[in-house]
User: Fold these one by one.
Assistant:
Number 1:
Amino acid sequence: MLLELVTVAFWAMLPAYVPNNVAVLAGGGAPIDGGRTLGGRRLLGDGKTWRGTAVGTLAGLVLAQVLTVFAPVIVRMTGVALPTFPITAALGLAFGAMLGDITASFLKRRTGRERGVSFPVVDQLDFVAGALGCAALFDFAWFSATFSPPVLGVIVVLTPVLHVGTNVVAYVLGLKGEPY
Ligand code: CTP
Ligand code: MG
């Protein structure tokens, strides 16, 4: 059933969705690249900070624990088979999401895009690629049990919609410089 697939996809990816949004709120301070450049352009740019990355990752880990506590109750009430998150999976999703976003900034700088300039598709799916890649790397058994091909399909369609939606909200609230 589609609603059930969407629910499982959203639940499984929540620890990957939240870090980037928390980073926007927690960002600031020293940039990861320390101001270093490569070929005359910043390695990553001022938009990737130690604090944003650390607090974002931590938020994803905490959320994964909360979801793990509540999963059995919701599963009993709804009958939807929601996954729980072992620490390996939580770390893969949360840190992977941040790493995907950081990798995208590296690519944006290499292709001459200044901080904050949009990079369609990459902006919307960088953290999904990072989160799924790291989750598979850190806990393949959990990854393959959780992300069936239909769930992965829903994630690829659903994520850009959610990403654009939350970024527009963050922009309207004045938390983010651009609506993407
Ligand atoms: N942020 C952070 N650390 C991260 C990711 C994000 O501190 N690892 C904060 C920064 O304050 C950043 C804001 O969240 O400006 C928005 O994130 P994002 O859109 O990813 O960065 P941009 O500033 O748009 O920079 P880039 O062009 O490199 O994506
Ligand atoms: Mg941006």
Number 2:
Amino acid sequence: MRYDRSRLLFAVVFAMALLLEGCSSETTLQQPLPNKTVIEQAQQANDIYPPARPILMGFSQLGSESDWRRANTASIIDSAEEAGIELLFENAEQSQEKQVEALRSFIDKQVDVIALAPVVHSGWEVVLKEAKDAGIPVIISDRSVDVSDSSLFVTHIGSDFYEEGRKAGKYLLDKMSNEAGKVEIVELRGTEGSSPSIQRGQGFEDTLKDNERFHMLRSESANFTFEQGKETMRVFLREHGDDIRVLFSHNDDMALGAIEAIEEFGLKPGVDIFIISVDGTRKAFEKLAEGKINCVVECNPLLGPNIMQAVQELIAGRTLPKRIFPSESVFTQQTAEREVDQRKY
Ligand code: GYE
């Protein structure tokens, strides 16, 4: 399939409804209820669209460190194919340098649009300016970039990581409200300098900071990977053993590694050590259902359809909201069993 008219019609209707909605520069993607005028306008717009050749998009993915990332990559590749968008895909395996190289190669190839899932928060100004000067719009996917000039990208499609950290903190406050004494916490952070690690950590800390009972005993980066999560948890246990009451893990892969370390140490994950994780992968849901994880804050990796819709609207000349959030929930042991079979990743 190249350009499916009904799909395009929906995309244009959606964009127009957003425009009519007016003032808001942030949105959660939901299907709007178009009125008749909007439909007529969309039909007219559809007559001059699609362009003569497939849209060419360069996508720089930051790596393949986790189940979340692999699901994210699959979602983007599949959705591009479905939308008839030609994709140049580069995996940087955690290297910002490689991402900059990939972006420059996309600029050289004069792609129509670039999507970037940035490994770290800062250091993007120069290359984004090069894309802008070449007239190529950039969509930021998943993690955010720290740039003073927000015209260097057209939109950012991804989760609110600060809010995820707050959800984890709120859950803990609620669950531990009856527990006496100090609550000693260890934290497995994600990749240093990455926006989910910075913002999840901050949201969690801000939520607990006014309650003196909660104490952060140790906080180390384990790079969002299973192996480093397991190894770092081993170190925490060797040094603090039974003192640890809570683990806050910035993603599921590290939490799953930590569960193995806790069992090796002879403690019961989910009981002796209360575990809160972020992402919501199928494997984490299984552990949630088994009682080995207590709470999972969802972070949705299936951004492909949102990105392709944004690309098509952009090429059709629409203005996008500056920030687009996928919808997300919090899952507990009670909800895990019901949900586990439905997880797509
Ligand atoms: O939570 C983690 C991954 O950037 C939101 O990166 C993403 C994070 C996700 O590897 O599992």
Number 3:
Amino acid sequence: MPGSILLTGGCGYIGSHIATRLLAAGEDVVLFDNLSNSDAGVASRIAAICGRAPAFVEGDVRDRSALDRVLASRRFGAVIHLAGLKSIAQGEAEPLKYHDNNVEGSRTLLAAMDAAGVQAIVFSSSATVYGTPAPAAAAAGCREDMHPAPVNIYGRTKLAVEDMLRARQQAQPELRAAVLRYFNPAGAHESGLIGEAPATDCGNLMPQMAQVALGRRARLRIFGNDYPTPDGTALRDYIHVEDLAAGHLAALAALRRGTAAMTVNLGSGQPRSVLEMVAAYQEASGRRIPHEMAARRPGDLPAYHADPGLARKLLGWQARHGIGRICRDAWRRELACASSA
Ligand code: NAD
Ligand code: UFG
């Protein structure tokens, strides 16, 4: 599957890091994004990092004619599909919007790929598809052969697309699809030029800690210190966005080697508590992060992390960066955004 790579959602947080790596690897990349949670300026920041800019087409994955036009514009070998909405809380409040963007958008994209003869896709799914792992599985790490049982709308939209990809693959065995289940993406490119959009406020831990370290919020609220974990706060698997990006290139390489279909976790395999993250962020930023204990956040799980064994086996991939590096890079990006604001 030689040819260019179409990167939907390529102007966003994770997409911009993948674009940088693809360009550095000599690939021809087209970003396709409706800019609902990003800005087109990312292309020039990517160019500042790797010396050349990706092509950018503004468009929506629900717009079949826009997809047909872009797919006809050059010979594409694969699509890396990240375009979508990602807030768990917003998904609960606006389920139709989430189905429309995430599921209908993906269906439209797959139909356009079929029409254009583009056979390979890498899809960004989420660890949220696992739902509430049984205690033994939560302790050992989530494995891809666990039965998925998402407990929120967002997770259900991701699982619906996974199912669509698997069904399509069975019907057309010549197609290739890699489903990547991300754990908790965090960190930023070491240049500080790209990272999570400062405007993004999904209430996630990393941006909340940044707000406190920057003095924009008085203190961090830690949601729950009565979980059955070593320090009572919830455990997650934080994965550096640069490691995540490398995982996409590894998946693409596996598809090119002939792997037809795979569903793979992208996580570090290291459970980390909220208090451990606060300590790491304080050290990285040199700032205090005053915090207070608050009630558990509805819908939060006590603990889960990846079993990263399959990614190592199928992709030869594993996370390289720990939470110290994650927090240093995230903080550098926050300072860059604060100084340019
Ligand atoms: P992001 O919001 O920064 O990037 C998504 C990009 O997609 C944005 O640039 C947005 O403008 C674009 N987009 C949204 N809807 C679109 C549409 N209909 N057509 C075209 N473009 C559209 O988010 P991110 O963190 O980079 O996440 C990328 C993908 O990874 C998403 O699919 C998300 O669900 C998934 N994911 C993210 C996380 C996370 O915590 N960041 C975890 C697991 C999975
Ligand atoms: N947390 C706090 N205080 C805050 C924010 C978060 O204590 O102000 C805690 C949460 O309770 C949780 C942990 O920090 O225990 C991580 O919370 P995040 O909101 O950063 O991330 P989640 O694990 O809830 O979810 C994230 C993404 C989802 C994705 C999931 C995959 O937001 O989109 O990881 O594992 F599906």
Number 4:
Amino acid sequence: MKKVIIANWKMNLGFRDSMKLATELAKQVPEIELGSKEVIICPSASSLLLVAEILKEHLFGLGVQDIFWEDQGAFTGGESPKFIYEAGCRYAIIGHSERRQYLAETDEMVHQKTKAALAAGVTPILCVGETFEERSRNLTDNVLMSQAIKALSGIDLLPNEQLVVAYEPVWVIGSGRSLDPSEAQHAFRIIYQALLDLFPLHVVNNNIRIIYGGSVDGVNASEFVGLEHFGGFLIGGASLRVEEFISIIKQTK
Ligand code: PEP
């Protein structure tokens, strides 16, 4: 599987700034990088179609930052997996810690969304990670296993379906401080083991990528690239800075 680099623009850019950033990316990210890796842009919903239009001649993928678990109906404000697929999105971030924290998303909701994404042909980017408090109480391994198992139990991956699991230590996201790569390595192994409890080995190795997210920048990215099970990055803040984002893409091997 190709390495994947996912840009999470969060709620940082209005449509003008989104257009500007997408235009810069289209101009500046070398095609060769886009051919050998997957680079997925997740703008805010209000800018999605504009960004899709700008990137359509290029090899970027498109994702949303959240979806709902039903395809259609009276669910005010929800983003339908089916409709976002029609809009050209092939990825959806699910269970980001900011949504778990501010919108009280539960593991059950994350599970439903993951299932719905797959059913619509959208690859889930499932976010798991411990808070600082959980880490201080030595609960990191339990949290990672529990979040992965609750999100994925009962889900089968067909040969043409993929899943991305993003390890995002909540206390590192947006903090500007970087995680010791040995800690990311440990988390990758825990997640890999949890996945092996849920899926056959060939599915874990061929259909699932484990990626890292949390204050990754042009300086620290290289520290994670060689880790066992490393499948790519989820990038927040640094994805808004074109040169830094390109530097991360180039370092991802
Ligand atoms: C994120 O929010 O998914 C993230 C990784 O953010 P940052 O890179 O800014 O820590």
